[in-house]
Amino acid sequence: MSWDVIRVIAILFVVAGHVTSLGPSIPGIDGYPFEVSIPFGTVTLLVVSGYFVCPTIRRGTVTRWLRGRFARILPAYLVALLFTYVVTRYFVVGFNGWEHRPGMFGLLFAAPLAPAEPDPAALPPWNVPDARDLLANMFLVQEWAPDVLHRVDGSYWTIPVQMAAFVGAALLWRSRLRHVVGAQAVLWGVLAVSAVSPVLSLLIRTLPAASGLFYAHLFAAGAAIWLWSRHRLASSQLIAMLAVTVVLHAFRSGPPKLWSVVGFTIMLGLICAAARGPDWDKPVLSTLRRPISWLAGLSFGLYLVHQQLGYVIARLLTQAGVSSGWLRLAVVLGTVLAGAWLLTVLVERPAYRVLTRPRPGSGHHGSPAATVPGPPSVFVRGAT
């Protein structure tokens, strides 16, 4: 229950920020009755991911663990990517006042036809992704050249970061460096590398963010909380590591934003409480157990479908003359929630079961998730 609550709080702030704050800043989308802009949800989820790397990587072989992580994330991501790409291509060309070239190739890949004389009163155009963007997002390299490659969905920057973190964790675990210098030294080293990673931009401008090193402190914070919860890290060490993490978060995206720092600090405290304290099954939360658990189980799917598809739906509602902000908000949230449910039950969970099924003669019985004492990745209860 504790982890479900944390995931739900984080994903709700992610969705609320993208829909109510960023959405109305896009041409053609009207505003909503309120605006939420406190960006700490995504970084909280990455800390949770770092936490659950620790108990899950210890079960079975590193290769099998890594296969399980990829099986959980990549199938759902690729399906969401393809669907978002097609929907964006189909509708955004019309939003811009352009036309698709004839044929399926023209619809999906060819550059659209712009009018010979642009309308001076037209809204600024949206970006229309092309085949190059699709391939870059499929192979998780879109962050290496953001000037020429575009995210099909603005939220998808976290997927290559997670993949890099999982590979990095697997390499560190296999190297057994923790036995040579100690786990504390490894975590401080990761924090130091993350802190100085912007210097790498002198070599390749996009290297810090594209490699994931820019965000490595978030995974280190999660791992530190796990060690502390197992009484393998002193509280003073944990506080120091989390303080460094908060400071890095505060200055990583421009001048510090007070409520973002406060919100992230509170979430780190809640993660510590969930890691070491009793489960949050008090009467008030127990009455909400089922809806909280249900929403937590859809959180990864919701993360994948809420932003770009939500913007397309919002633009269509605005064009249709739906003036009520509450109604537009309800339709957008309801649609992306339905999409998240479909993605979860039709793609994410079945694909994970198939891809992690024991191979004949492997000697393993049951899926990797069967031995995992909690959610092995960021978003989804019990199996993500």
Structure notes:
The chain is mostly helical. The protein has helices spanning 2-22, 41-57, 62-95, 103-108, 131-138, 158-175, 177-181, 183-196, 207-211, 216-229, 235-252, 258-276, 283-287, 289-297, 299-305, 308-319, 325-355. The protein has one domain. The chain contains 17 helices and no strands. The chain starts with a helix and ends in a 29-residue tail after the last helix. The relative contact order is 0.18.
Distance between the termini: 15 Å
Low-confidence stretches: 365-384
Radius of gyration over alpha carbons? Answer: 22 Å
Structural class: mainly alpha
User: H/E order of the elements?
Assistant: HHHHHHHHHHHHHHHHH
Number of DSSP helical runs: 17
In this structure, how is the largest beta sheet organized?
none
Mean pLDDT: 90
Number of strand segments: 0
Beta content comes to under 5%
Helix percentage range: 55-70%
Quick recap of the structure?
The chain is mostly helical and 384 residues long. 63% of the residues lie in helices and 0% in strands. It has helices spanning 2-22, 41-57, 62-95, 103-108, 131-138, 158-175, 177-181, 183-196, 207-211, 216-229, 235-252, 258-276, 283-287, 289-297, 299-305, 308-319, 325-355.
Index terms:
384 residues, mainly alpha, 17 helices, 63% helix, disordered C terminus
